[in-house]
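Example record

The entry below shows one chain as it appears in the dataset: sequence first, then structure tokens.
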Amino acid sequence: MAEKKQVPLRLSEKLYNDIAAWAEDDFRSVNGQIEYLLMECVRQRKKDGKYVSKEIDKPIELDI
């Protein structure tokens, strides 16, 4: 496995708590959950080596 990069990350307390609860449900650490979510987002963003339409880039309203 390739060596992993360390990245400092600042999250709001609410977002951190939501991710921590989700991680617990999935039996992962918070770090593992964040890595999993980022990998899933990258996978969904790419299709056959191409990026999907710009429709995905529309901002959404989140309460975080």
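Notes for this example: The chain has two helices and two strands. Residues 13-51 form one domain.
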